[in-house]
Amino acid sequence: MKKFIVSLTALSVFLFAGCFNPVFENIEKEVPLAKGKISGTVNSIVRFDDAAGAHLVCSNGATVFYKNCGESRSLNGESVWISAKNNSFTGLAYSYEQGVYEGQYILKTAADDKYVYVLTVEICDNGDGENSPGSYHLYYADVCPSENGEWAWTLVEGAQAILNEGGTSVTVFSTNDVEVSNRKAFLRGSKNTIYKLDSKVEAAIEVSDIKMGDGSSYDENKTIKSALSLSDSEVVFFTTLASVKGADCYFYAVDDTSSKAGTVYNNTDIFMKKNGEPAVQVYKPRSSNGKNNGKPVMSLAVTEDYLLFGCGEPTSSVTGDGGIYHLNLGKINSETPLSEPDAFVTNADAALTQYYEVRSLLVENPEQLELDASIYASITFKTAGSSISVSFENKGLWGYYPERGNWNRE
Hints:
The chain is mainly beta. Helices cover 5% and strands 35% of the residues.
């Protein structure tokens, strides 16, 4: 009998675990949990506008979902997320007759001012009875269809050769700006080359044209993971997954493992940079013994009054390094970094606990206060023992709406 093992980090979304879940039993007593429509691993939530209005788009690997901005459901209401039919490729499924996976798994979504993009992968047998990534594909669509409509996905011209050379290092990401004209999307290929996405991909961006958001110089040894638009013509890049633009600044987690003043940083520290000013460290978690006991920051989002950050580490087997946290922007100063996050008045830290990776965060309207905003977060997990409170049912997209007053499944 063949072993069905996904062996690469890029496909860790296929690794699951389950166990007794007392934390969520207690939550459900106080906040009845809605039935989740978007379950599974959601690696990104992106903004997209078309002639019909503003939308949010995400995928759980099997299906693309979208919703109209401004729509929310009540505590026991139906989900407003729409499952988009796909007329261009089949989703991943296991064929018991053939003993192989067929179709394509959606790894990530991205969007710019014109298109939504999906990066997919086929799964193949590596010859040793194990499943490994096969061919990658990159598609775009230019419109959100009406309810029960189909998305017309088209292969991005010129992308296949880049994907074939990139192996598991390929990914897509976007600036996800509130301003439509500032939205840019990118493809990372082999040797950390970066391409600006469109319906056709041509030459890679020149190394000299890649501006790092932390003020450092870029070279091809740096792996770009995210980007922000400072304007419709200026983009800055980061080697961390976590970056977000605020009202007059931007925030980012520090680079992957590096050493400074004898302290090892692993994306646990958060910096703020205002235009034309040096970066300022705003969060530096420390325990009483002086060690860095922070958790790896995986996602960032901002409201008028708080900076939210989601933690986790997809390349590690460590449990308990996740969760959602927030910092009061009014407490941030340029002299002393904050060392402790603020307490939530909602059920955020009870629902999105340290045992879940918070892979993505998005605030629909960053100009609103946290308690007045619609906020989305996706959670997943790696593995768990009987003492860790994680559940298949809770894995997926969660949302906070002011009229609901607490976080709940989407």
